[in-house]
Design goal:
This protein is mainly β. It has a single domain, classed as Glucose Permease (Domain IIA) (Distorted Sandwich), CATH 2.70.70. Helix content is 7%, strand content 38%. It starts with 10 loop residues before the first strand and ends with a strand.
C-alpha cells in the first residue's frame, strides 16, 4: 500500500557509440548546448556503429535516418542525433537496423554509420544523446566522470 521504503528506480544510459564523452553544454550547436531539447550528453565517435543505450522500444527513426528516438522501460525518452546538420545528408551514410515499434536491448545494433562520409559532408560527427522528456520531470541526471566510452558498455548518464 505505501512505498516509503521502496528505493527510487534509476536508469543507466550507456554510450550508443564508442568515443570521447563530452558534456551536452560543449556540443557546438545551441539547440543542444542550451538544452532546448533536454538534458543529455554527447559522444565524439571514434568509429563503430550505433547501439541501443537502454532497454526499451524504438519510437522514431527519422525519415532522413540521422536520428533515432527510444522509449526506455522507465518512460524516459531518448533521442540519439548522429552528427550535427546531418538531416541535409538525406539518409546518406546511415543504415538503420531497427524500425519503429521494435524492442531493443542495451548494446543491440541500431544503425550502421559511415563516419568517414559524415565527417566529410556534415558539420560535425559529435553525437548528442538527449533526454527529450527531462524538463519538469523532477529527475536528476548525472554525467559520468569517464572521459571515453565503449558502445553498450560505458554508462554515460545515470537518471535518478
Amino acid at each position: 500500500m505505501f512505498n516509503f521504503f521502496k528505493k527510487a528506480k534509476s536508469l543507466d544510459i550507456y554510450a550508443p557509440v564508442s568515443g570521447e564523452i563530452i558534456r551536452i553544454e560543449d556540443v557546438p550547436d545551441p539547440v543542444f548546448n542550451q538544452k532546448m531539447m533536454g538534458e543529455g550528453a554527447a559522444v565524439m565517435p571514434n568509429g563503430g556503429n550505433l547501439v541501443a543505450p537502454v532497454n526499451g522500444k524504438v519510437i522514431q527513426v527519422a525519415p532522413t535516418k540521422h536520428a533515432i528516438g527510444l522509449l526506455a522501460e522507465d518512460g524516459t525518452e531518448i533521442l540519439i542525433h548522429v552528427g550535427l546538420e546531418t538531416v541535409a545528408l538525406n539518409g546518406e551514410g546511415f543504415k538503420p537496423a531497427v524500425k519503429e515499434g521494435d524492442k531493443v536491448s542495451v548494446g543491440q545494433l541500431l544503425m550502421e554509420v559511415d563516419w568517414d562520409y559524415i565527417g566529410e559532408h556534415a558539420a560535425n560527427t559529435v553525437t548528442p544523446i538527449v533526454i527529450t522528456n527531462s524538463q519538469g520531470s523532477g529527475k536528476q541526471y548525472d554525467l559520468t566522470e569517464e572521459k571515453t566510452g565503449v558502445a553498450g558498455e560505458t554508462v554515460i548518464i545515470s537518471v535518478k
